[in-house]
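As described in the Methods, two query proteins were run sequentially through the folding procedure within a single session, without resetting any intermediate state between them. The first query and its resulting structure tokens are shown here.
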Amino acid sequence: MKKLIIVLILLGALQALAQQQCDSLKATAYAEKAVEFLKNELPDSSEWYRKKAEALFRTCDYLGNWIQLRKDLGVVYRNNAQFERAIAWFRSIQDDLWQKPRNTDEYKKLVWVYADIGYSYQKLNQYQSTREYYDKARSLYLKEVGGEDPVLAHYIYSELGNAYNRLRDYEQADIYLRRRKDILLEAGKWDGAAGALNDLGIVYTNEGQYQEAADIFSEGLALPDVGFENKVYLMTNLGFALMNTGELEAGLQYTRRCEEYIRNAPVSEEDKTDLLIWVYDNLRELYQEKGDYESAEQYYALKNRLIQQSLSGNRRALALSLITRGRMYLDWGKPQQALQDFHNALQYFMPGFTPDSSINLPDAEMLSAEPNLVDALGGLARSLAIRYHHAPSEALADKVSRCYALASMVEELLLHQYILEDAQFFALQDHRWVKAQNLSFTYDRWSKNNRDAAMVEQMFAISEKSRAALLWEGMEASRTFDTEDIGGIRNAFDSLNRKIERLEQMLHDSVNPESKTSLDVLKLEKRNALAERKTLLDRVKEELPEADFARQRIPIAISDLLQQLHKDQALVEYFIEESEAFIFVVDPQNEKAAVLKTDWDEEWSDMAATLMEDIIQQNHEAYTRKARALYQHLVAPILKVSSARNLTIIPDGVLWKVPFSVLLTEDETGSSFKDFHYLIREYTLNFGFSATLQQEMSHKSQSSSGKPLMAFAPSYRDVDINSTGSLLNPLKAAAGEAKAIAEQMDGIYIIGDRASKQRFLQAIMQASVLHIAAHAKSDPENPNFSFIAFSNTGDTLGQSFKLYAHELYNQTMPQEMIVLSACETGTGTVRSGEGIISLARAFAYSGTKSIVYTLWNVNDDASKKIMQSFYENLHNGMPKDKALQMAQVAYINDAPSHGHADPLLWAAYTPIGNMEPLYNSPLSAQLLLFGGLLIGALIGAGWYWRRKQKYSSV
């Protein structure tokens, strides 16, 4: 009995001890004190109570409470704008979890930790990390908490959509914001759905699709029970969209109505203030658009006064406000006021920047990937340039150039953070004005400064930096992974490329609405795979410094270019902007570069854009008029500074659509096509993506040297190739073209059903020259799905026969030359600085040294004649561009009639890249043999003479 009593006493003591060790009420009290002390800026006391609370939570096995405590401490830091410290606290939850969550409540708490991290990164304008953590929150919510519901839509899909919008991934933003809208509409959450439509409309506004944006904002306003705040946003944004569709008065009407609605609303003055900021900013922009700068300035003053009252700690809002007023002052002709605004905006963006005057500039180390920093620096440079024009000084001019250079550095930082190529294209287009204004300023300075050669080098570098940056990086990545394997990265890179290809194809083919795989899921998978690939590239840059992906940022020097060019060759590089065009002419005969400037406007741009269409539609009068005018405007000035007969042309913008070979050097009224004075008759023409890249492509490929030519001519059965009624009709002359070329060049021809996609991919490493006489189709809406059609007959019936551009990006093709004797292989979407996104660019991306591509649908019989003549000229040792020129001129001269000499039949073929001869000419070979025999005979004679002298002296 005594033993039993002792046992009971011990059990009671242990229970009491356990209760003391796991005292949840005490733990909660400690946690509350920890948060309270931190709010009162007593971190030591907070830390003491935090440790006590956490120890008890662990003892009680209360994981959810432990997570909540650390989350609450992070929120305190975030509310005090200490975002880095907040992130550190939130992330410590991930790092210090002692076990996985076991129930829905614990998983929910972890979901909101990820969301808090994303929100904190958003406050730091680090949208890549914002997207990453909200995506983690989304994945965990769907997996562990439940399916899609209004909570997920409102608090996570909304933030994901807006983060993707900031990253210029508009397609993904569209997906999440539409899904948010649909979920909230289904749940009857009208106000939330209106907010989703407002955010979606902003996405379309950012894309420049203002009419679509206006329709979306109107859709939001038409919903029932829209809350006060969302109604204001929708009305204000609708007014802005209408302004950009040209309906200025309608935009003003909506925005004024919105102002009145806010003033009469039964809400607090604080709520009214926050919303009036947006309304006043739109009214400022609307009046500025009208040219009523006094009214615009008044609304700016109203807006800024409210910002100071309500957002005194929001430095970014104040900076943006100053930038908008600075632009207004520049348009108004008040550069001094603009200068002060841009300078002050820089200080808000960079707290460490403390200038002692209004023209001091920040150090490069202070820069960050902030899009509006480009606007502030570019605006400051414009303001300083105006001051320079009124009172020139070298010190001030250097500051202007330095300011533009800093803006370009920020642009490069931004370019690196974007994952999707489309987002990078948008960024390049958005900030091109910085380079354009820098070039214009430097040109004016050069004109007034004894035309200093150093400034020509500076201008040429500005032009070069604006082009082919993305193409170069892709080529460098392909080349690096083809020769190096760093810790298994190459295998991972190849695996990701295959995955991206597969997802691209699935997205392209998923047109069936009953498809089990959601398009949205596929798009997200593709986007994540692209992000993984970018991470691998970043690792290579760190671990393999010699793989210098940034070399395209170091343009080729003019002195190096002069040595690279042949004696009778000149490089001509265009830089086109809205109101002016610059032409650089680098000519070895002159031992220097010339810089020309001419006017440019919408009329010239339209002329350049439609010339090719006039040829295709056979609008002969329009063609001859435009071809003559464009020659006089773009080419004739070159001939005044260069006598070279071989021109390497680096086009820009819309000039990629100009077939330079058909420009007319004389008026041709009443003449026959056979007698026209085409530019190609007098000049050998070839093209390049950039002067710097042209040098890179000029190196011969070692891996393909010595391998034969392979010519492909597929056979076809009639099928609808892209659901548009376009049929794969047989190409009657293609097989004969391939046979003749292969026999002529001692190569291999692969025709009929043997000319499959699979056989072509095998030929990549077996041939130094590839010739493709086939169907091809450009897809301007989605250039990655432009394709070459290989055989779809015989044994290939069950195989994929289309070779898409996106597949070429992931191939290594070190060919010396690829000839695309097919339709539309050089057409596609023109992207600022990058040229035409086409099949030809995809082959260059994959490593091909030279490409002959087509600008429109080619005629079967004409192609056969031109190509046979082209290869005969190559076989005789001509450079590639000369061989093509001679073939085209011969075709014109031999044409039996006016119609047969139509440029439509012969001018589509265009050479780009390395133009060195493929083969030594027979005459050169004979001279080399004769020279060798002569040298041998002389050596033999000398030996005989010395021998005879030796014996004669004995």
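Immediately afterward, the second query was submitted; its sequence and tokens are:
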Amino acid sequence: MRPKEILPWLPKDKRLDNFYQGIVNFVEDYVEDSTKSKKYVYSKEILDPCVGYIKINSWEMAVLDTMLFQRLRKISQLGLAYLVYPSLNYSRFEHTIGTLGRLNQVLTRLKENDIRLKEKVKKRRSDITVIDRYEIAIRIAALFHDVGHCLFSHLSEFAISDLQGNEQDYTDEDLQNDQPPPAEYYPSVKTIEKIFNREFARDKEKLKIFEIFSIAILGTKKIAKLIFDNFPEIDEHKLINIPRTLKKITDKNGLLHQSAHFIAGLPANDEPETVFLAQLMSSGLDVDKLDYMSREEHFSGIKIEMDLQRIFNKINIFPKSKSELATPLKKYSDFIKHTSSDTRNYILLGIDKGGQFAYEEFCVARLSLYEKIYLHKKVRAAESYMKKQIKGLIQNEKNYQRAHNWLYVPESIIEKKMTFSTSEMVVEDIEILGQITQMGTKKNVETHSLFSDIFKRQIPDRAFGFGPSNSKTDSPINEIAIDEEKVKELQSVRLWEFLLSQEQRQLELSVIEEAKKITEEIKDKNEYDFLPKSEEDWKNIEKTLVFDIPKPNRVKLDPQTLHFEDIGALNTVNWTIPIANIHISYLLHKILAYVYVNHRFVPLITLACERIFYKYTLNNKEEQFIFDQTQAISKENQSKIKKIKDELVAVGFYNTCPELMPLDPKLTTANAVELIENVVRNLSYLECCDSPSKLEVEEFLKQFDEDMQLSALHLISNIKVLSPQKELPDIIKEIRNSEKVRDKGVVVLPLGNYLNSSSNFYKHLKNTFNEQKITSLSFDDKDLKDEIERNDYIFLIDDNINSGIQCFNFMMRYLGYSDSVIEKDNRNKLWLKKYDNRTECTHPALEISKKLRNKKFEFIFVTGHETSKNELSHYLTKYCKLEQDNFEITIIHEIKNNDKIFDLSNLTYSKIDDKNYTIFGKLKMDFRTSVTPEQIDKISNKFREIGKQVVKQKGVCRDCEQPEEDHALGYHNRENLIVFVNSIPTMTFTALWCEGKYTDKNGDVKIWKPLIKRK
């Protein structure tokens, strides 16, 4: 049965009855009967080192002096951060008073800013009296917003959120059939959160259990009596402007319900003018953040850039109609019932023009606190270890499954002094779960020994790190276009989310089992102190082995929860730096999940984790995960790992997972790692094929002998990625606006069929065609005949011309010619047989072909060889019967013969002028300054041999009836390092794009894996 002491506005659900009873009992235990306590008549001022003097009303003092709030003195705001920053041990009690102080400052400033505006423009922006009407409710919210925290604040929340209660005997079907729960029924925390979030839903930000504790405590009659029995300064004549839903001050139910909404970050029920008050409690600039950020700067000694004075000068409220709400703020309208005649405005919290830069500094300062405190590696190690011990406590004690009991557990549980004797059992009294319990020493020791390592600051060390920033197997993300959805697709982030949703005990056991296999392989190596020597060692590993996996959205900045005045359509602070997305960049580059273990066994657990994740089943699919540990663990442990890994390689332990074998030392230097990362980043722009991961780059390099790997890396680090859709618009505009074409009609026809690369990037040129009044057609268009007849110029555009043969073949078909016009001796050389069956390239209407013959043509290519233009021109005049004056060929980037990278006879580089090299000559120059002539000769022979073998298996040689030697280093041995976003040209080194079998120097047949596979 629902307790009578619970106010009616709390969610009504029979499953919550025992939870509510537990909250009522807790309040009874920690709040003295107000009729027996002293009366609080006067307000006070409290001096705070961060806020200054803080005014506390008499009724607030009555609340603060209860055991309920005094217990907050013994609850650390930042969990175990004091183990790293000794002075950073302030409590929730200090923070609660500081939050009230910041609320005083903000409300005062909002009133002053409104008065200043009135004096300036002779009118008020909004009805500022709304602050007076709701001041009591918002102050109650600020006072109670953290009262539901348990030991070590957010640290215990992680463990409490998994509590199961004993709801397994009561099903959803029983609930639907209106069956009452069993007398001993207690809901799981997930059930409690689900029920409360139906009442207090906050978009994607759901209420957590500690907020629910706070709201439930506020929803007890004893708390209502405590507050309202201490209101001597409130006179009846001051109650004229109270909210519509509050008939008089004694309507405790209505007032506290409003406060509960504010704690949940919601406006008061059906009151749009209170949105700014909800934002003051939960937004990107709430009073909670204003207090704890300045407090953490003060007590940690960390300096952060935060100009609170400027923010206070620019903070303001803004009346907006429902239609004027920015998209992120529309969530507030879900809690407001509007009628057609309703003209009420939403009043929003925001920043006046000129204050956005101070707010940006505020956001970056908050990110600094994440980096230096909340996600500090030692803090995370201690807290993850503590979470594991708390979970162990839950498993051993039935009462700990009841969520409200955690409100009783003191932080001193980790420092309980234990008295025991080997000859007899010593019985102690300890306070736990709010009652004095007689507990034998043995159980007492077991309970408190869970936490003794933390009390003695014996914190596990990092043994393994995994995430986007050190993944070798993640697909690369183009950093210019980072968004949250793309980050969620990353393999390593999917692994995080999977592990967060699973019971990690099985993963721990798998790691220990793998560690035992490794130990068995080299058990005779007694000199390795990091190998377990006894059963006690294995127990130590099991006890201290901890996985700490961050939630992908843990680092979250909320600029879009505020209104920014006079910044145009942007309606966010992203006009200077991407504050809203800065946490994504931080996630990609800074945050790792960690595995911790006792410092002695770090090398062993590193290697065990590496093997476990090598082939890991994620959502019923086996995937490969490899993570670079260079930055994740200490140099001392890295040297130990190398020693043990060399032993394992010697006994063949890595034969089944060669990717885990050590890289050549030359590829592990800082310069080499940077070059590999640059290759991955550079090729991440490719759309025509899967861009390689860091691991795939390394695997490509491993195919070369060790003395050639670094040379090969220097070579591929010079690959130039060109984007036709970015290169072409300017040249198209230039030709279109030239004197000869300016006033003429222009049609663009596809140079190839729908599978051709030119067709793929035509869609990106649509805007250019429209702007320049160029008609884009295909040969299926019904208006084709009329358009060709109407227009004077035909544009044909492609990314690469090579020798001009492909373009010539398509032109022969477009103009209605067959291969019979080509001399027999040249037919096999010039006629590409693979296009014979592609009907898309031939139009049956001869009359259109004849009309085309009389038109003028513009051929535009991104790249081409220095001989290509003359060759194509020759073919067009000789076989296509085009007059020289009727066509023009433009090549944006012309490739010179002396741009060939491996050609040692050409020591000069192609230049546009005396200072500027062509992009291809620059590639050659950069490569030749990094690699000696001897190395160039060696690697060129390797590329030539591989290219010659794998190109045999491709159609390019068969179709052109040319020897493979002519294509060993790319089409016509052009030796290019150019790829297009939408295609891989065959003139690029064959071994870079061509896959196939080859025979190595030992006579073994192997599969050559290219860096970028051409489709």
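DSSP finds 39 helices and 21 strands in the chain. We note this only descriptively and draw no conclusion about the first query from it.
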